[in-house]
Amino acid sequence: MKSVDAILTNACIITMNDDFDLLAPGALAVREGYIEAVGAVDEIMSAYESADVMDCSGCAVIPGMINGHTHAPMTLLRGVADDLRLDVWLMGYMMPVEQEFVRPDFCWLGTQLACAEMIRSGVTCFADMYYYEEAVADAAAQAGMRAVCAETLLKFSTPDALSYDESLEHTHDFIQRWKGHPLIMPALGPHAAYTTTDDLLQQCAQLALEFDVPLHIHIAETEQEVDEHRAAYGMPVVPWVKKQGVFEAKTTAAHCVHLDEGEMRTLRNHGVGVVHNPSSNLKLASGFAPVAQMLDIGINVGIGTDGPASNNDLDMWEEMRLAALLAKGVSGDPTTLPARQALAMATIGGARALHIDSHVGSLEVGKRADISVVDLRSVHLTPKFTRDPEAIYAQLVYAAKGSDVRDVMCQGQWLMRERALLTLDEQALMEEAAGVASKIDAFLIQREESVLRKLLAIGEVAQTKMFEVQVKVLLPDDASVEKMLSGPGIEIVKPSVRRQYDTYFLFEDVYHSRLRYREDEVLEETGEVEDVFYRLTLSTETKEREYERSVLLSRSRFDAPATRSLRFYREYFNPESSVRVQKKRERYRVRYGGTDFAINVDRLTQPALPGVFLEIKSRTWSRQDAERKAELIGEMLALFGIQEQELLKQEYVELAMEAERLESGS
Amino acid sequence: MKSVDAILTNACIITMNDDFDLLAPGALAVREGYIEAVGAVDEIMSAYESADVMDCSGCAVIPGMINGHTHAPMTLLRGVADDLRLDVWLMGYMMPVEQEFVRPDFCWLGTQLACAEMIRSGVTCFADMYYYEEAVADAAAQAGMRAVCAETLLKFSTPDALSYDESLEHTHDFIQRWKGHPLIMPALGPHAAYTTTDDLLQQCAQLALEFDVPLHIHIAETEQEVDEHRAAYGMPVVPWVKKQGVFEAKTTAAHCVHLDEGEMRTLRNHGVGVVHNPSSNLKLASGFAPVAQMLDIGINVGIGTDGPASNNDLDMWEEMRLAALLAKGVSGDPTTLPARQALAMATIGGARALHIDSHVGSLEVGKRADISVVDLRSVHLTPKFTRDPEAIYAQLVYAAKGSDVRDVMCQGQWLMRERALLTLDEQALMEEAAGVASKIDAFLIQREESVLRKLLAIGEVAQTKMFEVQVKVLLPDDASVEKMLSGPGIEIVKPSVRRQYDTYFLFEDVYHSRLRYREDEVLEETGEVEDVFYRLTLSTETKEREYERSVLLSRSRFDAPATRSLRFYREYFNPESSVRVQKKRERYRVRYGGTDFAINVDRLTQPALPGVFLEIKSRTWSRQDAERKAELIGEMLALFGIQEQELLKQEYVELAMEAERLESGS
User: Which CATH number among 2.30.29.220, 3.40.47.10, 2.60.40.3140, 2.30.40.10 corresponds to the domain A1-63+361-417?
Assistant: First the structure.
């Protein structure tokens, strides 16, 4: 009798080996972290002895599941914001919160929480892609879980690096430190084609080859990504990524929702694994990945939960079931992706996709002892039909749940027994997580309090505190405008002509904030559109005041390029109401009294108001300067023969609001 | 202080009332089966007292979920057969097993098992449609669950009635006996448009109106149903069902996967509720129901699990999550069907769809106390963000699971506390179910043993044990055929000409069974196809023998009309191999020696063999008669000048197999 560390016996052993052998009843012996033997109960019990013999009557013993793609620390962002458009969710919530909160301790805590959840549902290995992967690696190793830890590299600054050079440097160090760890495989995670550069991808591929570590990347998650990529590079995502040498490495591509057949063949030919994330693809409305086709072509396809912020959990049983069901719905054929194949994707298929199938993914002698015991003795798994032994696959995939997992072992170490976690203090983790959540809540509450904070949160805002001196007057016709501009002492720089489409978001906050979204079409002399600018401008009423010469001084506005759509901003800022103003503007740069002014000659089309509006404006950085400029404007007004009572004190947005009120009143 | 039966306090109470009020923390008082009060903790605790005060700290209290469409007794068929085409699954497995096993005790046991599973996941009410609904009603009532019990009515015979008149009669009695029961609503379940008749639907509608009971029907589950309905009636399913007066009743339509907008408006205008079954629709590849559109149009849409044989469980949490995710994937818009709406569908929306919203579906004073307590204190629900109180909906829909339900009450009675079932003996039910499963296994094993039994299992087989005397000869040309048929003593009845496309399924069973699928095109004199017959014929080699005059006597074949497709039979019978034979046949009815014979003059196109084959055949019922006929055939052969050595002893299928062997050998 050979002594071993543990024996699992009287189980239905689902090997997931090449022949899909089932041993019912069977037994399995574990020694020094490896599977020592798998066989019939008698055979194993007569050859091995152990102080740790686990009776698995009524249970299935399966390979530990492999979560092929996740962002584990994002457990701490689970439920921060849901049911939003992808851009609002990502750029309005995830990224600002990440920028504020993601630090090594955040990643460590989030990963430990993720490990607790994954172990509870029978996962023994996960492929991660996030920031501070060293903290992820450490948290996973302490939990006793196996992990491929891919450090995210972006062309932008990240929470853990200001530039990608810096990212490459610390990823290099991270790999050197962790390479060879019994549980952790350090890896490179260039985020995606659209968030990296050719150079960054090439450097990642080189590093992956140099250290023989895996490379993890998002590919073709959304249709927009693919369309934009084609427009920019004249080819789909896969060939472009291939061109950067990425597929020379042991690469795994997450998502792959929008691929053509040629791209699939490229992935197959280069041994690139794919990880399918069905819940996330539905929740973010990314689309339906061509899973059955990829499997048919011979790609190794695994299953992932994606990050818990877009799922909202890490339950591989839900993903496996959904993968199997969805493929049938998409193909219109209920024999597509049968149960056995779905379980394979969650185990050995995932191992192949992650290039770690030589040591995990199936219950075979010589592989690491990564094992889950699933208790089948509950009502939702009753009854059992034994006529066809393969019926166990359907039972596991269509009816079993994460909560049926009773015991979990990784590399021979028990991580859970009888549903009690052995390597993690769940209660403490939950309490710590609650603390982080309340800080994130506070951050978001504070941000939501003012439109300005929300604007700042999405970045790229010019936080310059400018002041603006301005005056406005309504003139009956073009003739009077020309007369003024040709007046003495006024030097005119060549004008530009624009059509401006403004949408004002109005807020009932304490500042009566107004946020203007402007589409600014610059016209050529022919009237053709030469260029378009999109800007966001926030102004707050409370800071306005009037000068003696009836010139208004606004405490000036916060300005940002509007890089996203009007729809995005409308959903993100969620204003109480909105008003549109459209006009044609002749803009003149003017010098008067040795000072720069802007003169706008505006004709309003929305609201459609008769006459020509003349605005004189000047920006300033100080109150004193503002007063001096107000004086100069007063002089110009006198020169133009405009009386104080002719001055309009309302902004265009106010005229528009008034017009709307009149209209709805009639 | 008013005394009440139970108080649930310190909960987040999710009322699902019209204003979607959330009370966090809140309390709820129950008295005599009804909700007596809902309010803030202080308010309730200062006004009511009870011996049963449940602390719900860290829990959500939600309305008991409503499973809007299921076939509860089918728990006993869970996992019998999976990953098959709909017709193979339904007609090859479900129906034969149902015909053999479905009796009142089966339905009672299956329903109790279903109740155990549903209570465990927080369901307090379900809408059922099956046979022996009285047993379903009794089982549900004993479990303490609320149920709408719709007795299935079909134009065919069912496990509980030989004809629909009989069904109508016992449904009438069932309704009379159960109408007014505090938990059970008896109802009519005309199965679907394609399985009923206009008269049957009309009678169901009348009965529903007469007794003011609900009517439950499947509508537009598959594209095939809709296409065939249009072809048969020149209109889609909904208007035709409406024409039968069905929508005058309180009707609920399950599935509704393939509706046009006009049909949706019809359902809305008639207050017909719809129940969406996302798992089943995917698993059986029925399609993607236009849920978002139906909700937009204003239809009351609930959620159902469908029967556990096509799901394979009764987990409303999975369905709710899937409904929310799938709608986003289908619309391409992640804001479609947000979490609150999904939870509404599983509670008040389901109640509306079933026309029972006046007394269940939300936590409001005066409604029945149907309540579930969901424990939110687990890792997969960590952390919680409280900034937006409505975030609880996303937490429940996207991350919570059936196993998080801690306590369940129906009509003021606790059905589960601290995850212990109080009205059901789960262990005993599971043991009984195991007994049934092993009987079903034995039935299927026995059936699978012989192709004949499988053929018999799908019905309509002519089980006549005929014998056939036959002889076959190859002639060089048409001239010799004509000469024979014009010979003395032979009287010819007008021939028919056919093209016959045969596929033989070959089995390596002990009988060397051959199953022939024949497509028999009867041709007009012009060569046009007049009619087509499809037949299945099973023959078994072992019973063949030769007579002295070298005439073969086959123990004859089992015959059945082939009402389903070749593909169906191929998947259902799963033969070892198959061979095709195609020929043009002139068939003559002939009288010789006062006896009827059939003479076939065949020209083979597959395998393409030269010459003309002549067959003489006669059916017989006894060995003596067979010998007499063999003698007569011998006379005819002599008359035709055919020598014994010219006779072909092979069947066409054997010639085809030989041809295939030669071909693959070359």
Answer: 2.30.40.10
